[in-house]
Write a structure and sequence with these properties.
155 residues; Four Helix Bundle (Hemerythrin (Met), subunit A); 6 helices; globular
Amino acid sequence: MDSLHEALREQYRRQFMMLREALADNDDQRLRAGQGLLVPARLLVHILWTSAFYLHDEPDYSVFATGRSSNWKEAATEDLPTAARMAEFLAEVEAAFETWLAAKSAADLGAPTRFPWTGASVLDQLLYNLRHSQQHIGEINAILRAADAPRISWQ
């Protein structure tokens, strides 16, 4: 594996580790506390769904219809997945990422993306997803800090 693939693998590994920490260190009650969109469980579901979404060669909106609380924005907090279920989904997304990345050559990563809002290339698509996830991890940390709850360690 070349250095580009190794760097992507490492940065995604760190992101997944941060998400696992949030799920392990906070119970369902704490993860479901908040208002509106600023509910850690809601943001975690969104991160996981979008990470799964961007692991395709073209937009596949069926990932959002998997029975995992189909409307993350409007679902009642009690209808959001439990931390245990999100940890399972995280493991699925992480495995899918490893498989998907292993199948991509350096040329594939430089190829045009079918997600034009993310940039020009498949690499842009992956970096966009990392930036998107980090934005929401920051929001989760701010919510947890305000609640004097365990925050996600920077990796």
